[in-house]
Amino acid sequence: xxxxxxDVAEAIGVMAAVAVAVVLLVAGVSKLGRHDGWRAQxxxxxxxxxxxxxxxxxxxxxxxxxxxxxQRHVVAWFAVALFVLFTALLGVRLxxxxxxxxxxxxxxxxxxxxxxxxxxxxxxxxxxxxxxxx
Length: 134
Known about the structure:
single chain; mainly alpha; elongated
């Protein structure tokens, strides 16, 4: 690869990381902003309360690190893992025929989960992979 190709790939990786950072920061802040509502929605999805207590802080930490590009390639893989876990949980609930409200963005989202949530998360996973490898 020539230098300009590498520069373009790097720029795409940085932009993907910033996009993922914004998603994670908005999700974390919205969950903390409406703590009781988030915990109730998370419980409706079957998330153990101890996990629900930690999720917003994990999102904020990963989002902050991605935003400032600290160890972007490594942190982005953690974002991939987080989005894969979220997607798996939604997929299991949908397979069970359950459609509780989405707790994805705390107080910003209360629509029942559906296939669109899986598609949206697939985009987040793709962006996270781009941030990790480019």
